Amino acid sequence: MLIDAEDFKVQTGKKISLKDYDSSWIPKWAEKCEEKEGKKVVKEQASAILKENLKKLVDMQELLWASNTYSMLIILQGMDSAGKDGTISM
Prior knowledge:
By secondary structure, the chain is mainly α. Helices cover 37% and strands 0% of the residues. It has one helix and no strands. 0% of the residues are buried.
């Protein structure tokens, strides 16, 4: 199951507040499952999507490296205090 982008769309010109959104959000299709099971399924799906996108990123970086013409800068934003002490955890 894919995550529905409609759940994240905001009307043009409308102000939003992150306080209005539940940080423990799960997709509508996962709400049918028990809470713990639904979160596990979502986590597994997110992990699979991440692995697929990581593979694509590696392939693109390899292509850029081989062309010896372009470079790529990737900026990762951590949540809370991630990386503020100079370490990165994966």
